[in-house]
TrEMBL record, chain A:
TM helices/strands, residue ranges: 9-29, 71-92, 104-125, 153-176, 214-237, 257-278
InterPro entries given in the database record: ABC_transporter_permease, MetI-like, MetI-like_sf
Alphabetical list of CDD domains matching this protein: TM_PBP2
Membrane association type: Multi-pass membrane protein
Single GO cellular component term: plasma membrane
Main location: membrane
Pfam families: BPD_transp_1 (PF00528)
Protein name from the UniProt record: ABC transporter permease
From TrEMBL, chain B:
Family statement drawn from the similarity comment of this UniProt entry: Belongs to the binding-protein-dependent transport system permease family.
InterPro entries for this protein: MetI-like, MetI-like_sf
GO cellular component, one term: plasma membrane
Gene3D superfamilies: MetI-like (1.10.3720.10)
Domain of life per record: Bacteria
Gene Ontology BP, a term: transmembrane transport
Lineage: Bacteria, Bacillati, Bacillota, Clostridia, Lachnospirales
Keyword entries, A-Z: Cell membrane, Membrane, Transmembrane, Transmembrane helix, Transport
Name of the molecule in the record: ABC transporter permease
Membrane topology listed for this record: Multi-pass membrane protein
Segments traversing the membrane: 14-36, 75-99, 111-133, 145-166, 186-213, 246-266
Residues annotated as domain ABC transmembrane type-1: 76-267
Subcellular location: Cell membrane
């Protein structure tokens, strides 16, 4: 009886196991292998070259730019997706009647394709008719050509950061609604002010939600692709590359499969490393408190 | 003193609304701008990017729907074939796997759980190049399935994790009663576990649909035939192909968003639940 149940359970698991083996675990191993080879244009010839790709990678100025850009992105998401979203959630929590309206609007960008958002911002940044130049002239400024080597990464990252503010807003709002109202009531009796309420009650009570959100936004920085691809495609002159866009170009536009694979491996290693360090740091702080 | 306190309170309230409304406007204004411009000719747009159209015309929409090489109407059909198949495949395969992991307990179950968690950490970039090679060797090359299969695989781990967690929380008594009456595991799955897990299946289905519909990268990499490509890939080529036809670009954005807007309006709660449940998805 038990053996038969076991067989059935394994049978039900089979399709998932086959798919994961063929399209997740096997390719992961293959990417690691490719990263040690010289391999061009998806040909049949792969030459094992050891750590050469990784050595090139350390010297590659574009990789340096991509890492710097990722750091800028991390600062942006922490400031806005965590900081600003938290402020919005605390503010909305105080306005009971139209909170649904704000939530509906704030969350909508998450539903839209990043591709559409990317194209939308490309048009917003246009010189002749773009929305940004309209607002600049409205406030008495001069029209500008926005995207250049210095500005490209910031302009490409604005939509990336903007899109997901509403996501964490909803997460924090749910967290706030889970805080017991008894705590607030007793604080109200003590005559607490709204700002004090936010700083001394709401934020500390959200600690675990904040921790997991911070880990989530930071590790998410390595997965950003679509919007950058649409707005600048890494340019001009590679100034707005991320590891993701650079890897895609190396593999599919310039046909350097070995080097692209080594970039992909660096992406996973960095992602896992940053996530686990962050977890340890944030949880360590929790024990002290 | 009391009056001053009241004034301060009012000022704080106004400031609060200003911040909230400001952030709402960052979403409303750009979308409205794109919508208004989608009804204008490109000359009108270049002349004045914010004016209302002289006369509402749908030429931009006609252009993108029937543009010979980048037809949005054909892209829509492709999108629904691809995303529909992905949702169906994920629900079916993940449902079976979750039933096996969630409703049976064996020694190996906890190892399977660990493997799933590890798979969540693998980004699609890490598997893209080998998958591209595999797909180009398989007979599915050049068909919708070339995008569907990797997308199913990419969504499996997360869907299985969500469904398994939900199925484990269901009470055992119903299954046991059915098994004592001689029901097969398949009967238990289709008549007891599946109906009870319907809310979680809906959440997973919506999450996977939106993710698949919006997915640019996998369709772009695995599916190079223009005639089979979904909406997002076509949209990504619009700015290069249409040159200075800005009106059509605006219309293409609106057309891409509309199905999602409809889904959002119909079932906002489900969509928000589905996407926030997908928070840790790779």
């Amino acid at each position: 009886m038990k053996a038969k149940r076991q067989r059935t359970a394994l049978l039900f698991l089979l399709p998932a196991v086959v798919l994961l083996l063929c399209f997740m675990i096997y390719p992961l191993g293959k990417t690691i292998y490719y990263s040690f080879t010289a391999w061009y244009n998806f040909s049949a010839v792969q030459t094992f070259i050891g750590l050469e790709n990784y050595k090139d990678l350390i010297r590659d100025p574009v990789v340096k730019t991509a890492l710097r850009n990722t750091a800028i992105l991390m600062a942006g998401v922490l400031l806005f997706q965590i900081g600003f979203a938290l402020i919005l959630a605390i503010l909305v929590d105080g306005v009971r009647h139209c909170f649904k309206f704000f939530r509906t609007i704030y969350f909508f960008p998450i539903v839209i394709s990043a591709t559409a958002i990317g194209l939308m911002f490309t048009l917003i940044y246009k010189y002749e008719y773009g929305l940004l130049n309209y607002f600049i002239t409205l406030f008495g400024g001069e029209k500008q050509v926005w995207i250049n080597e210095k500005t490209s990464i910031y302009l490409a990252l604005i939509p990336v950061v903007w899109q997901y503010v509403g996501f964490y807003f909803v997460i924090f709002l749910t967290g706030i609604s889970n805080i017991s109202s008894d705590i607030y009531e007793s604080a109200m009796l003590d005559g607490i002010r709204p700002v004090q309420k936010a700083v001394y009650i709401t934020v500390p009570m959200l600690r675990s939600v904040l921790t997991s959100s911070i880990v989530l936004v930071v590790s998410g920085c390595f997965k950003v692709f679509d919007i950058i691809f649409m707005v600048t495609n890494g340019g001009p002159l590679d100034s707005s590359q991320l590891l993701s866009t650079y890897m895609y170009q190396k593999a599919f536009a310039r046909g350097n499969g070995g080097y692209a694979s080594s970039i992909a491996i660096v992406m996973i290693v960095l992602g896992v490393a940053v996530t686990s360090v962050l977890r340890k740091m944030l949880q360590g702080g929790e024990e002290d408190a | 003193m009391h009056e001053a306190g009241k004034g301060k309170e009012l000022a704080a309230r106004i400031l609060k609304y200003i911040i909230l409304i400001f952030w709402a406007l960052t979403t409303i204004i750009p979308l409205l701008w794109v919508l208004v411009n989608s009804f204008k000719t490109s000359e009108e747009i270049v002349k004045n990017g914010v004016a209302l159209p002289a006369a509402i015309q749908f030429n931009n929409y006609k252009t993108i729907m029937s543009y010979p090489d980048l037809s949005m109407s054909r892209a829509f059909i492709n999108s629904f074939i691809i995303s529909g198949s992905v949702v169906l495949g994920v629900v079916l395969i993940a449902g079976l796997a979750a039933f096996s992991l969630g409703r049976f307990r064996f020694k190996w179950t906890k190892y399977a759980d660990a493997v799933l968690i590890a798979c969540l950490l693998v980004p699609s970039f890490a598997t893209m190049i080998p998958n591209f090679v595999t797909i180009s060797k398989l007979p599915v090359r050049g068909t919708h399935a070339a995008a569907v299969i990797p997308q199913i695989a990419g969504n499996l781990c997360f869907s299985i994790t969500l469904l398994t967690g939900f199925m484990r929380s269901l009470p055992d008594e119903l299954d046991e009663a059915a098994i004592i009456d001689g029901a097969s595991p398949f009967y238990v799955l289709t008549h007891i576990t599946m109906p009870l897990s319907r809310p979680m299946f809906a959440t997973v289905g919506i999450m996977v649909f939106i993710w698949s519909y919006n997915d640019l990268l996998t369709s772009m990499v695995y599916l190079s035939q223009r005639s089979k490509q979904p909406v997002c890939v076509i949209l990504s080529m619009v700015s290069n192909m249409f040159g200075t036809d800005y009106g059509s670009m605006m219309a293409a954005i609106i057309v891409t968003i509309v199905p999602l807007l409809v889904l959002y309006v119909i079932s906002q709660e489900q969509v928000i639940k589905g996407l926030t449940a997908g928070a840790v998805k790779g």
